[in-house]
Amino acid sequence: MDEKQFEKEIGEIEVPQFEVLQAIDKGIKNGRKAKRENKRFNAKTIGAVTSVAASAFLASGLLFAPVSNVLAAVPVIGSIYEKFGLQIGAELEESGLITQLNQAASSNGVDVTVTSAYYDGNVVGITFTAEGDELTFDPYKDNGPESGYSFHLFDGVEQNQWASSMTQLEETEGGYTAAMEFYNPEADLPADFNLPLTFNSMGGVQGEWKFDIPFEQISAETIMTDAESQLVGTEYALKMKSVEKGEGTTHLNYETNLPLDGEGDEIRLTVFDDLGNRLSKSHADVLTENENGTVIQQNVRELFSSKIDDEAKYLLIQPEVVRYEEEMIHTLDGLAAPFTVESERFDYSLSVDNVKQEGDQVILDYTIQNLEDGKLREDLIQNFADFIVLVRSGDAVLDEAGERDFGQLMENRIQGVATKQASDEPYRYQTTFTVPENFNPGDYSLMVPFGTLSSNQPIEMAPIKIDLTEK
Questions:
Q1: pLDDT of 128-178, one tens digit each?
Q2: What are the b/e assignments for 305-322, b being 16+ CB within 10 Å?
Q3: Nearest to 259 by CA among 292, 285, 299
Q4: Which end of the chain lies in a sparser environment, N or C, as judged by fewer CB atoms within 10 Å?
Q5: Backbone Cα Rg of the chain
Q6: φ, ψ (nearest 5 deg) of residue 82
Q7: DSSP per-residue string spanning 165-187
Q8: d(Cα 460, Cα 5) in Å, to the nearest integer?
Q9: Burial state string for 206-230 with b = 16 or more CB within 10 A and e = fewer than 16
Q10: Which stretches of 206-340 are DSSP H helices?
């Protein structure tokens, strides 16, 4: 695939709708807060808000049943990985690289059996079945965990949990089945190890099902590279180090430079091979971060949940800078208007022309200023307007570390019930908020997410080409 086709593919990538963006926005903010709080750790996960869920854990003191561990030729139930949409498992299953297991445990009349496992890169996965007369699971009723089961790794201590993603229980002829993937952000794991896994509930039944699952890593090929890209006239730079070609995964190891005022910024990668195949992004881990002169230097390991085609001769990587800014907070000051909310980092501003209260509604008229015509789609500008919310001023106060409790802000926020273009004038909007009976404008502030605008205007860096044939 040539670079023109590559650019065409990039331009046609679809952007999720508002509901998805709302969930992503909350996750990104929580993730950024966790990233800042965890700077004492060597490895931390950043985002592309992708695909790996937060680890789940729940301590349990119920009955323990012995485990029988038999490595046997137990067939995987159909194409379970493909059925559940687990791309890594499906790739490995197609290549015959899934380890078949028959490791079983019983508790409170329920039998749970781990039926298969895999270990590629630093991702491990399993499938399991559950059988028992008391099992029940209805995903449309609020009667337990959304997946239908809960678990923990190791001793259940939160700091020891790995990131995980899991499918819901799927009813079968004899009971239920499901699949799970775990990801350890550390740079290197042993070539073989046992992972202690304990289920605490299964299909509405409380119990304790303990397993010690053996994993053996599938061999991978490492290709070294020193390809680089830098955004002209800025501190943003990317230096590739190596590509790890797994049988179901791909890892890129690279170094990024960010300006000192761009701590929340990211350099995101989109990767194609010369055959036109796009690698499926999972997420990136910052293994180390330090200030070096005028830049923030990060060592990053990024996981892609798909393999590189055996016939591919090179990878074409498109890096782009995504700049970030915290939300700006401006007090309503008794509904006094006009006033302007300005971005601290970018040229954007919000000119609020009028604020009025009519019964249980507060109506805000404003203009989004300094947008470049044609640079942002209308739906993205609408998304920005939809995320302008009212927050309690007390929740917006910075703590001793200079941080806000974003969870508290979101919990008590007042979301607009109607945001619309107010006139034919460019970027002029009106948002209506339904407020509580005891609403006092002096207790509330406007929270404006200018970072939504900047993050949707990424800056492309020069593409990087990595030769896969060099040894």
A1: 999 999 999 887 776 678 899 999 999 988 888 898 889 999 999 889 999
A2: bbbbeeebebbbbbbbbb
A3: 292
A4: C
A5: 25
A6: -65, -40
A7: EEPPPEE-SSSEEEEEEEE--SS
A8: 16
A9: bbbbebebbbebbebeebebebebe
A10: none
